[in-house]
Amino acid sequence: MAAAHSHFHQIFNSPSRFNNVKTQPIHVKPERRTIISATLRAAVIGGGPAGSSAAEALAAGGIETFLFERSPEAAKPCGGAIPLCMLDEFSIPSNLIDRKVTQMKIVSPSNLTVDFGKTLNPNEFISMLRREVLDSFLRSRAVGCGATLFKALVTNIDMPASEKAPYLIHYISNNNKNTLSVDVIIGADGANSKVAKSIKAGDYTCAIAFQERIKLPEDKMRYYENLAEMYVGNDVSPDFYAWVFPKCDHVAVGTGTICSKQNIKQFQAAIKKRVKKRIEGGKTFKVEAHPIPEHPRPIRVRGRVALVGDAAGYVTKCSGEGIYFAAKSGKICGEAIVRVSENGKKMISEQDLRREYLRKWDDEYFSTFKFLDVLQKVFYGNDAGREALVEMCGDEYVQRMTFDSYLYKKLAKGNAWKDVKMAANTIGSLVRSNILGREMEGQAYRHRVE
Asked: CA-based diameter of the chain, in Å?
């Protein structure tokens, strides 16, 4: 775990830090200087968890840091679940948490329901937050460390004229066009990253997430006091899952898909139908949709530009989790730049970023991403696999292994005998579920014929 930054807590919640930031355009011809000032200058494009964590690490390390965020008041459509380890590692104060989920129900296509939280220890829970609250907090902390926040739209990035010449960032702020020269750029601007396009980082497959925020009557909200639900089935998603996650005074109800984006509203209607009795009387007050990357980009570092978070493609398969990995990648990248530049005293290179950022990231998380990719292919491909997944989740050993991996972000070490038993049970579940799947398909066919 990285050291907590608790000494900044006093200044984080001051909204005036956002309002008083003034943009200061700087015009430098790239051929005249190899480094712009006495210290390295860095721009972070995107003010979500990835960008804010990168900006905080850079600014705290003595690097002149500029954080660009187009819409600080906006919020990315997101379930908002974060693992237990993130609270400590990123010093997230408890007052930001809307709900502490200790019960997790997973529901199969045939409505088999499994309580997926019975192995949680008394001090363990899944935190549910609103992204607008979390993102604002992290941005404010980066500003508190010395980063300059620009509420601005980046329109274009000019590549350096030589190996050590600066990058030119063109942006619009308050309807004015400006240019800023920097030595290094971190792209944290999401799945449709402009930074990624500027360095020709290549394309990747994206899912779409669709979510409605629904304010429930008090009696209905009590049901979701500490409960989150996941639903799987072709009706709610052909290749992912749907969710009901509790927030402060409402629930987030949503779904996602890769292969059938054009039908996303149909899948959203299906999850609302599945939970109809529990959300009756609720009022939808916000509808959100957003692309979610399905795998890392072909190129994540080029020159003195690095991609982090969704821009790099750091969203896990199977669970679709991205908040922790966004913040972690930003932190690793920012700290790497501080380290190799000796707190901003030296220019860095592409080789530095590959060695100190990419290699560290891949060494730590490559196996986790690949493992979850395999799980998604095995269990999310059809309703038979989904039935097997839910049945398997009823096993307490599977639950404990899953939560150890999720809550603490490390692949849990299991018991060899229990692992063999789990594999045998999984095969049995897949066999039984294939039989059930054929029966369900037969019933559906007969229903259509009749």
From this structure: 79
Q: Write the CA distances from 163 to 35, 135, 185, 392, integer angstroms.
A: 11, 34, 14, 54
User: How far does CA 157 lie from the centroid of its chain?
Assistant: 25
Rounded Cα–Cα distance for residues 102 and 109 (Å)? 23
Are 67 and 171 in contact by the 8 Å Cβ rule? The answer is no
C-alpha–C-alpha distance, residues 236 and 273, integer Å: 10
pLDDT band at 423 (very low <50, low <70, confident <90, very high): very low
- Cα angle vertex 174, ends 170, 177, to 5°? 30
Cβ-in-10-Å burial (0-12, 13-18, 19+) of 299 comes to middle
pLDDT at 157 over 90: yes
- Tens of pLDDT, residue by residue over 375-410, are 777 788 888 888 988 888 888 888 887 777 777 776
Helices and strands in the chain: count of H runs, count of E runs = 16, 19
pLDDT at 277: 94
Tell me how many degrees the CA angle 214-215-216 measures, rounded to the nearest 5: 110
State phi, psi for 97 to the nearest 5 degrees.
-80, 125
Q: Which residue has the tokens 């840091």?
A: 65
Count other Cβ atoms within 10 Å, centred on residue 202: 13
Q: Scanning the structure block, which residue is given the tokens 């307490």?
A: 396
Strand partners, 68: 45, 150
Instruction: Check whether 436 has a pLDDT greater than 60.
Output: no
For strands 64-69 and 41-45, give the pairing.
parallel
Tell me the sheet residues that pair with 233.
Answer: 237
Distance between CA atoms of 133 and 141, rounded to whole angstroms? Answer: 12
Looking at residue 105, its pLDDT comes to 93
